Amino acid sequence: MNHTFRAPPVSASAPAAVPSAAPRLGRVAVALFLSAHPAPALAVSALITALAVAAGRDASGSCLVALALLTGQLSVGWSNDRIDIARDTAANRRDKPLVDGAVKARTVAVAACVALVLCVPLSLANGAAAGGAHLIGVAAAWSYNLGLKRTRLSWLPYAVAFGLLPAFVTLALPGHPWPAATPVVAGALLGVGAHFTNVLPDIDADLATDVRGLPQRLGRRRTRTVAAFALLAASAVLVLGPPGPPDATSWTGLVVTGILAVAVCLPLRSAPESRLPFLATLGLAGMDIALLLLHGAALG
C-alpha cells in the first residue's frame, strides 16, 4: 500500500497572529513613549548631564546622572498623564495617547512606578547628598501632579525641582560642595518660567476641569508677562550675579536670551494652544546653561 505523509492542518488564523502582534506592540510602545512627555524629559536629562560633564564628572558618573535624570523625568511624565486621564478626556485631548486609547491606563501607571523605583538607586548611586537633592526634586514634581497644580502654589514644585538640579551636579563632586546661589536662583526662576509657558496653551481647558493653579488664576495675558519676566530674570541672574563686571560676550548672551524670553511668551493668535512657547523655553534653558558654563557663574 502506498502511504503518503500529510502534514496536520494549520489553523487559518495562526499565521496572521504572529505578524500582527509586532506592529501592535510597536504602536503601544510609541504611545507609551509619547505619554512620558518625551521632549522635556529628554531635554532636561541632556542639559543637566552636559552640565555634569562640564563640572568634571567622568564617563561612568555622567551616565549615572543621565539615567537618574531620565528615570525621574519619565516617572513624572507618565504619572502626569495617568493622574490627569479624566480631565484630559473631558477636555477631549486627542493628542494624549491615554485619551485616544492607544495605550492602557494600567500600562502607564506601571511604567511610572517602575521608573520611580529605578530612579531611587540610580540617584543615590551619585552619592547620598546628590541623590537626596534629586529625589526631593522628583518628589516635588510628583506633588505637582498629585494636587499642587490646582492651587496658588502650582509654581513651587517647578521652582524646587529646577533649583535643585545644580545641587544634584555639585554634591556628587569630590568634597560634595553646595552650588553657588547664582545657578540655584537662576534654576528656580527658569522653572517658574517653564511652568507658566507649559500651562499657557491649556488655561481654558484647565479652568473647565477645575484646575486653578496660579497661571489659570492670572489669565493668559498676565501669565505671559510673568513667564517672560521669570525667564529674563534667570538669564540676568547668571550674567549679573557673579562678582565682577560682565564681559561683552555675557552682555550679548543676556540680550539674546532676553529677546527669546519675550518672544516665547508673545501671544500666538493663529494657534493659541501651541506648545511652541514651552518647547522654546527648553531651548532657552540650553542657552542659559551655556551662559552659565562659558560666560557666567561657576557652579561651585
TrEMBL record:
Domain of life of the native organism: Bacteria
Subcellular location: Membrane
Keywords of this entry: Membrane, Transmembrane, Transmembrane helix
The UniProt record lists the keyword Transmembrane: yes
Gene3D superfamilies tied to this protein: UbiA prenyltransferase (1.10.357.140)
Lipid bilayer topology: Multi-pass membrane protein
Record has Mitochondrion as a keyword: no
Transmembrane annotation, as ranges: 103-124, 130-148, 155-174, 180-201, 222-242, 248-266, 278-298
Protein name per its UniProtKB record: UbiA family prenyltransferase
Taxonomic lineage of the native organism: Bacteria, Bacillati, Actinomycetota, Actinomycetes, Kitasatosporales
